[in-house]
Amino acid sequence: AVPDKTLLCVDDDPSVLKAHKLLLESKGYAVVTASSGTEALHLLTQEPKIDLVIVDYLMPGMNGDEFAERLQQRFPPLPLVVVSGADELPDRFLKKAAGFVSKTQGPEVLLSLITQITQKKDEGPRAKKTVLCVEDDALELTARKKLLEAAGFCVLQAQTADAAMEVFRSTRVDAVVMDYWLYGNRNGTDLADEMKRARPRTP
Questions:
Q1: Neighbours of 199 (CB within 10 A)
Q2: Per the confidence metrics, is the pTM higher than 0.70?
Q3: Which distant-in-sequence residues (6+ apart) come within 8 Å of 78 by Cβ?
Q4: 69 or 151: which leads in pLDDT
């Protein structure tokens, strides 16, 4: 199913906004952009159907911290995802966010986080279990995703061992389904060993 969600991206760098917009629209999201916190808050009063906000931390004028504060006051149920190149962010800021992605991480991490947050928001307390599918064949991956979604799971995807580990480390996953043969220098056994070291209890 194509996501029918509208996301608001806030960043003072036009190239970052353009990249986010292209990436998210390619996955079926509607995307609204703003180049400052002030502009974003103004847009939110006019665009009531926004489902999630993605914000940069370091911005001139109103930084991410101040924006998060105002967002919580005026639109308390709206989830916020922080995408930042800064290494250290204040705890008080991160507590206001539903998730954090570093600009050095791959797009899979951001997409997985958005999928997880928007699906949880839809279901409230009865959240679906999340399965990470690792498969280098795109057609096989799509087929497996459809199958698992039909069975009621939230599905995150990765086509390489590196992408799978990024998603696995940054997102809560209930189970992993993976192919043994993967492109690159690591097969399914290597990846499974690495995942088991990171989180021994994940099946």
A1: 12
A2: no
A3: 44, 50, 51, 52, 53, 71
A4: 69
